[in-house]
């Protein structure tokens, strides 16, 4: 996976942009609107039950992921799948608590059918009308101090973004034209000492300083010169040359800090993740208890030895944990060298082959989730010996341990499971794991669970 280019939305900040805030609210509010319309349209008043249902649904669907910028392939399928998982979760909660009896069937059915249709229409049309709305706003004139790689990339993002309202009109740099080479994103308007006069005479709104930190004296002089202007000033640190994982701007004691690589599960987001894990794991254990009992008896009859296989794995922050699975092999390897299971592996028993192919051997890991060692969705845990091998040869390998390992994950539903015979196979899996960390949402977790259920009986990589 290529290192992402600089983006105006690449780092999360304390004050989100208006368009970002609108993007997070559109889907949840549309869903609430359809619930209200379905209730009123069928001749019923909005009561406390509908308000509670609306609050639960809002928490499951916020923040929204409406694609303001482009139309995704398979958009209808994606919306139907995501909404289907939300509906399934709500129905499960409703039946488990008896809360579903408080609603008329016609109201719920109408809401569940109409919502994905409305979401599709809004998602499909948004790349057309959102730029027109943004075009009504006044453009922000910007300049960039430093025509280096970071500054030029930032200018390119601003000037080619049809949804942006900021346009870079000039660069300022003290280097000679021979050293700068061809700069096509905007003209070189002068040296750093000339910035203040240019800002005052050209009505510049925003200044982006892309100078290296070694240029501190020049930066301090520049800031002093700009004191009598009204332009907003931003720094473009060199972190954008790196692969950002949940990057965020914060302040500690009034000192600004930039988190380059961080877990997505902090504060209320972490609480949401944990509560969803507890609910899903508890539900799964209750539903599969008879199956797990039957598997345990079958293993005990088919082969001597323990029913459960315990193996050491790395968990959150690289701490060692013990993971449980139904035993599917004649041996129980957990030493310095653990051989990965391969197709037609003679260590796998006939019963074990069935369990592995259907992923039923993973069911005891729901107890690991209840213990807090694992999550339902996350990067799959590898044997400790494999971790020690691959962490030395794959860049960013240990970043996957910024979150708890999962029973299933983004890599698994994209075909990156099973044997990693070549280094490239493991690198592909790690790319998916890191993408999951960047893009995490509760909706993504529900989608992964839904895809995993579909793959249980037909995954060619399961052996």
- In total, how many beta strands? 11
Give the strand order, joined by hyphens, for the main sheet.
Answer: 3-2-1-4-5
- Counting DSSP H or I runs of 4 or more residues, the number of helices is 15
Distance between the termini: 27 Å
The secondary structure category is: alpha/beta
Low-pLDDT sequence parts: 1-16
Helical proportion, percent range? 40-55%
Alpha carbon gyration radius: 27 Å
Element order: H for helix, E for strand: HHHHEHEHEHEHEEEHEEHHEHEHHH
What general outline do the C-alpha atoms trace? flat
- State the major sheet: 5 strands, parallel
Instruction: Please report which band the strand proportion falls in: under 5%, 5-15%, 15-25%, 25-35%, 35-45% or over 45%.
Output: 5-15%
Number of domains: 3
Account of the 3D structure:
By secondary structure, the chain is α/β, with parallel strands linked by helices. The chain folds into three domains: 18-134, no CATH class; 140-259, 3-Layer(aba) Sandwich (Rossmann fold); 267-455, no CATH class. The protein contains 15 helices and eleven strands. The protein has a five-stranded parallel β-sheet with strand order 3-2-1-4-5, with helices on one face. Strands 6-7 form a two-stranded antiparallel sheet. Strand 10, helix 12 and strand 11 form a beta-alpha-beta unit. The two termini are 27 Å apart.
């Amino acid at each position: 996976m290529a290192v992402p280019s600089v983006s105006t939305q690449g780092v999360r900040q304390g004050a989100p942009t208006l368009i970002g805030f609108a993007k997070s609210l559109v889907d949840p509010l549309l869903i609430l609107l359809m619930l209200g319309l379905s209730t009123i349209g069928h001749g019923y008043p909005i009561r406390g039950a509908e308000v509670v249902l609306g609050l639960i649904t809002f928490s499951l669907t916020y923040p929204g992921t409406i694609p303001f910028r482009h139309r995704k392939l398979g958009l209808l399928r994606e919306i139907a799948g995501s909404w289907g998982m939300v509906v399934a979760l709500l129905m499960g909660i409703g039946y488990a608590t008896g809360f579903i009896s408080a609603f008329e069937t016609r109201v719920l059915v109408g809401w569940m059918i109409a919502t994905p249709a409305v979401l599709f229409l809004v998602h499909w049309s948004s790349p057309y009308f959102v730029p027109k709305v943004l075009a009504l706003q006044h453009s922000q004139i910007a300049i960039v101090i430093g025509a280096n790689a970071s500054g030029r990339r930032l200018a390119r993002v601003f000037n080619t973004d049809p949804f942006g309202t900021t346009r870079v009109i000039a660069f300022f740099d003290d280097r000679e034209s021979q050293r700068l080479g061809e700069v096509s994103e905007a003209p070189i308007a002068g040296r750093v000492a000339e910035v203040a006069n240019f800002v005052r005479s050209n009505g510049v709104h925003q200044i982006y300083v892309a100078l290296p930190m070694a240029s501190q004296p020049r930066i301090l002089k520049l800031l002093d010169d700009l004191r009598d202007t009204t332009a907003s000033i931003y720094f473009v640190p060199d972190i954008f040359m790196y692969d950002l994982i949940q990057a965020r701007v914060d302040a500690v004691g009034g000192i600004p800090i930039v988190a380059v690589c961080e877990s997505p599960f902090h504060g209320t987001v972490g609480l949401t993740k944990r509560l969803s894990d507890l609910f899903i794991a508890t539900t799964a254990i209750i539903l599969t208890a008879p199956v797990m009992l039957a598997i345990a008896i079958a293993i005990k009859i088919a082969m001597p030895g323990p029913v459960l296989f315990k193996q050491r794995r790395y968990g959150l922050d690289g701490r060692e944990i013990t993971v449980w699975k139904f035993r599917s092999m004649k041996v129980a390897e957990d030493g310095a060298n653990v051989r990965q299971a391969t197709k037609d592996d003679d260590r796998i028993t006939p019963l074990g082959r069935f369990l592995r192919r259907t992923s039923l051997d993973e069911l005891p890991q729901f107890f690991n989730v209840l213990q807090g060692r694992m999550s339902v969705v996350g990067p799959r845990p590898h044997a400790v010996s494999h971790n020690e091998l691959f962490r030395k040869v794959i860049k960013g390998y240990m970043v996957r341990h910024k979150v708890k390992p999962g029973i299933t994950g983004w890599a698994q539903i994209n075909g990156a499971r099973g044997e990693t015979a070549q280094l490239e196979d493991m690198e592909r899996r790690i790319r998916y794991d890191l993408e999951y960390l960047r893009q995490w949402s509760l909706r993504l977790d529900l989608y992964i669970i839904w895809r995993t259920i579909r793959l249980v009986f037909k995954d060619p990589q399961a052996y």
